[in-house]
Design a protein that fits this description.
heterodimer; A: 141 residues; alpha+beta; Alpha-Beta Plaits; three-stranded antiparallel sheet; two-stranded antiparallel ribbon; 11% helix; B: 198 residues; alpha/beta; Beta Polymerase, domain 2; 2 domains; five-stranded mixed sheet; two-stranded parallel ribbon; 7 strands; 18% helix; 22% strand; binds iron/sulfur cluster; ubiquinone (chain A); iron (chain A); metal ion binding (chain A)
Chain lengths: 141, 198
Amino acid sequence: MTRPDGVPAQGPVVSPRVHGVIALVEENCTSCMLCARECPDWCLYIESHTETVPATTPGGRDRSTHVLDRFAIDFSLCMYCGICIEVCPFDALHWSPESDYSEGSLLDLTHERTRLSGWRATPAADGPSDVREPPDPVSGS
Amino acid sequence: MSALVRAVREVFADDVDDLLDVATDFGSTTIHVDSGRWTDSLEALAAAGATYFDFLTAYDELENGFCVIAHLSTPDASDHVLLRTLLARDLPAIATATSVYRGAAWHERETHEMFGIDFIGNDHLEPLLLPDGFSGTPLRKDFVLASRVVKDWPGAKEPGESQEPTTSRRRNLPPGVPQGWLREESTPPNAGSRHDKA
Ligand code: SF4
Ligand code: SF4
């Protein structure tokens, strides 16, 4: 077998739609825990506390709100299924095509909120899938 | 109708009851056959041009049994089908596909290891991926995910919580862990004494 042409000499050339790493939009996250509960790998850690927001109108009621203390994804366990992104009702997570974050130790693959927020700078491109059209199911061979 | 589907239909011309279903979804055709006709169907597909064996695997349909599927294609990928059959849950067994596609041996080995399905005629169903001495069939849905008892479930917390819940309210049970396995309910059989902090 010959090697296909176009094998890149340096880094791989990937589609901008590639699912490389997960970015966090902190201000959208309500600490609702849905992503942490749906993650099949149990590799998404969230800690938060409750704060009281005083009423803004006379006679109004105080509100309580959840404040994020920790948001971390352990990419040594993550299988990039994207379930956390799909399940988030607040669009607080999205893909970035970046993949250049290898580490010498598995422990360093846990990205805390600051690092996850950093991936926001490179959102993955949206758009139609580049999967080829399936063959026409009714035509002959 | 594709040549592959036509070829399978021809095999079943006299016993239509064994050809359980032919369905096309998203451009992929699935042919569901009686498990006794597995080899016949594979032979017909190979003869009709599907000489490329892509993969064979299974999935757990709970009380209905186990589905075994094989994906077969023409070498130029112009036509492809999923061949599927259903096996009974107790003693699931089926004829090996290796008599038609030798490359199926490795896939049957893995499917045997993960689901406990027997492939009659494949004499080399030794463990492939699991650690030495592992017992159990981990891709069956009734397999207890013991590691989920050992590790704290990150989803057990409620919004606004930082620590494990301190109140006595019922905790959320993680998927894959049956009732009675979480350590505050009872001591799990395999968690040892490292978890007496509860
Ligand atoms: S991509 Fe999947 S495995 Fe990774 S953190 Fe999200 S839900 Fe978990
Ligand atoms: S699902 Fe979205 S909003 Fe809820 S905790 Fe996860 S990231 Fe935050």
